Amino acid sequence: MTMNKKKVYPKAICNWPKDDRPREKLLKYGEHTLSNAELLAIIIRTGISGKSAVDIARELLRKFKTLRAMSGVDVTEFKQISGLKDAKISQIKAAIELGRRMMSEEKAFKGAVKSSSDVADYLMPLMRDLKRESFKVILLDKRNSITNVVDIEMGTIDKVNPSIRDILLTVLKYQSPAIIVAHNHPSGDVKPSDADKSLTRDLIVAASAMELRVFDHIIIGDNQYFSFGDEGLIEKYEMQTVTNM
């Protein structure tokens, strides 16, 4: 009885049979027929001495386990893999970012924002895998439709300190009557910190003085979110503002 032997290829992909080369395989049979390693190899393009692009791709997957886990990873972690320099790392990170944006586009909506889930579903693919906290301002028009999403501040793994002045200057620049703000918690836990609550309250006070509305502050976690609006905190802070006037 003879056993099937696993194919052993020379390291250089150009020496492989044409039907087994990732790029040619994609063009002939479609991208859905390729493994994750083969798709990554097409992005990486070339290997190094003794190591093909597929080898590098497989090492990437062994290190990070999943494609999603590569999202938001610092460049220095990619550089730990021999054969990955700035150009290749840029290509990989660009491809991952395009994938995130494609997922976000699928959740995009037209017309007025009707609930916190509308915004959270749109932001989740963009923010849930970030390794540092990021603060965004969602600008709304008079019909409560989104006109723009602006990045205000990139923080650390557990903190972001956006300037209320910068937030309001952004709102004035785009002449938006109302906003929703959002940031992520890389830990995945969406419970708001005391700093999150203080920022939201102070922003509502400052915005109110300029006759601007803050409809919500949304915290993005790992496939879950927290809405200050849904929890009644936006209304609470607004009432405190009126009481203190």
Give the uncertain stretches in residue-range form. Answer: none
Count of β-strands: 5
In the CATH hierarchy, the architecture of the largest domain is 3-Layer(aba) Sandwich
Helix-and-strand structural type: alpha+beta
What characterizes the major β-sheet? Answer: 5 strands, mixed
Provide the number of structural domains.
2
Query: What is the CATH superfamily label of the largest domain?
Result: Cytidine Deaminase, domain 2
Shape: elongated
Strand residue percentage = 5-15%
CATH class of the largest domain: Alpha Beta
CATH third-tier fold name of the largest domain: Cytidine Deaminase, domain 2
Fraction of residues in helices?
40-55%
Give a short summary of the structure.
The chain has 245 residues and is of the alpha+beta class. It is built from nine helices and five strands.
Describe this structure in words.
The protein is α+β, with helices and mostly antiparallel strands. It has two domains: 13-103; 109-244, Cytidine Deaminase, domain 2, CATH 3.40.140.10. Helices cover 43% and strands 14% of the residues. It has helices spanning 22-29, 36-44, 53-64, 75-78, 86-107, 116-127, 164-174, 194-209, 233-244, and strands at 134-140, 146-154, 178-184, 213-220, 225-227. A hairpin with a 5-residue loop joins strand 1 (134-140) and strand 2 (146-154). The protein is elongated and about 75 Å long. It starts with 21 loop residues before the first helix and ends with a helix. The model has no long low-confidence stretch (mean pLDDT 87).
